[in-house]
Amino acid sequence: MDAGVYILSLFSVNNIKNIKMKTNKLGLIRIASCIALTLFSFSCSHEEMDNRINEEIILEDTGEVSPSLARTNGVMGANEFGKEERKSIDDRLKIIRNANCRIKVKDVTEATLLTKKMVSKYNGYVSEEKFVNTNYKKENSCTIRIPEGQFDAVLDSICNVAEFIDHKNITTIDVTEEYVDITSRLKTKFEVKQRYETILMKRAKTVEDILKTEEKLSKLQEEIESAQGRLNYLGNKVAYSTIHIDIYETVIPVKEPEEYKPGFFDKIKKGVNYGWSLVQSIVIAVFYLWPFLVLGVIVFIYFRKLRK
């Protein structure tokens, strides 16, 4: 009995030791996992920090502002920069002027010629023209581009030709703010582009740095070309005003005949045409019947010989 109790006690002691050993192994595995996760997160954060530092260095060299710094500072710096830039830009107003008028004249053709002479005199040009002449309407619609300084003179001269002015509308669009804003942004983009080009030539060492810099330069070039296109469009619209004119004259409708009756000369022309077509038909018929004509000639010659 005592021996059995002794054996059971030994068995329980061994089990406890095995359980403790397994528990220690699980603890060691958990500790090793925690250490590995900590090292991995530290390496990732360290790499991210290096990239952020490199990005801040590049942004500092080019004069750009990182997104985080921009969110922190807000838009105050951009507004202050815009105000300073606006002082150095031409302060003249950028106004797009358009006019639309409809006038009645004695003769549309004569009035159109006078209008073109006036436009040419003031260094303008006709960009579009549409002439309509029917039994009920005679009208010419013109779109004129004229230098901004001659807008009022040309419009008044055209209206002086009219017998009656149906309507005359003048509209203006102020694009000064947009023009100044695009100009200042364009200047900034050119400066940033120059800095990136300097980085590409002097500081970019690795292939990754070169590719990133070239990508930035490509985006900047697209933005610069888009801004220049918009600036050129606004400049053209401001420099040359647009005048659209409808010139018309009163037309008394003529009653159209219910039936067409040809005149004397029309009948002669018709007879000549008919005779000519008849001659053509006879000649063509001869060529179609040439076998019979040949046969008839042969028969005629044969019978003539028989009589002799």
Q: Short summary of the structure?
A:
With 308 residues, the chain is an alpha+beta fold.
SSE blueprint and pairings:
Layout: H1 2-62, H2 67-73, H3 76-88, E1 95-104, H4 108-121, E2 125-133, E3 138-147, H5 151-161, E4 164-174, H6 176-202, H7 207-239, E5 240-249, H8 264-288, H9 290-307
Parallel strand pairs: 1-5
Antiparallel strand pairs: 1-4, 2-3, 3-5
Features:
single chain, about 300 residues, alpha+beta, 5-stranded mixed β-sheet, flat, disordered N terminus
What kind of sheet is the major sheet? 5 strands, mixed
Q: How many whole angstroms does the radius of gyration measure?
A: 48 Å
Q: Tell me the β content.
A: 15-25%
Q: Please tell me what the overall shape is.
A: flat
Task: Estimate the helix proportion, in percent.
Answer: 55-70%
Q: What is the chains' assembly state?
A: single chain
Distance between the termini: 175 Å
How many independent structural domains? 3
> What is the SS-derived class?
alpha+beta
* Order of secondary-structure elements: HHHEHEEHEHHEHH
DSSP, total strands:
5
Order of strands across the widest beta sheet?
Answer: 2-3-5-1-4
- The DSSP helix count reads 9
